[in-house]
Amino acid sequence: MKKRLLELLENAYAPYSHYPVAAIVVMYDGRTFEGVNVENASYGATICAERNAITSAITAGYTKEDFRELYVMTKGEKPAFPCFLCRQVLAEFFHKDSKLVIMNEEREEHYFMSDILPHPFTSEDLG
Ligand SMILES: [Zn+2]
Fold it and tell me: Which long-range contacts (CB under 8 A, 24 or more apart) does 88-97 make?
């Protein structure tokens, strides 16, 4: 996983932040989907690596109950957590006990989604 994530970093489009990010989601059937961050001159139009990977899985026909794990690689000095916009999307598709691995080239850290989403807003809140 780490080797592939490092390769994917080279595909990130990050001319503004110079902060490439790569993500891989693993489905319960073992299939994986990849994403990198794609920035835009209009910064708000930027799409994060995590959401690119998730939307690729949805496009391929997977759904809410299919997401098992998420791996995120950055080139920063330390592994970085998904941004809060991505966390909201993670809350839509992953279980609270789904595995999250954040890493850079030197280090990796393991979490559960519930660690970064202790009180998510979900469809259950819509009543
Ligand atoms: Zn994000």
Answer: 88/120, 88/121, 89/50, 89/51, 89/54, 90/50, 90/54, 90/116, 90/117, 91/117, 91/120, 91/121, 91/122, 92/64, 92/122, 92/123, 93/54, 93/58, 93/64, 93/67, 94/67, 94/70, 95/67
Tens of pLDDT, residue by residue over 2-25, are: 999 999 999 999 999 999 999 999
Catalytic residue positions, numbered: 50
Q: Domains in the chain, ordered, with CATH?
A: 2-126 (3.40.140.10)
**Residue 86 CA to ligand 1 centre (angstroms):** 4
pLDDT in tens, 54-108: 999 999 999 998 999 999 999 989 999 999 999 999 999 999 999 999 999 999 9
CA of 28 to the centre of ligand 1 (A): 23
Q: What is the pLDDT of residues 106-120, one digit of tens each?
A: 999 999 999 999 999
Distance 36 CA to ligand 1 centre (A): 10
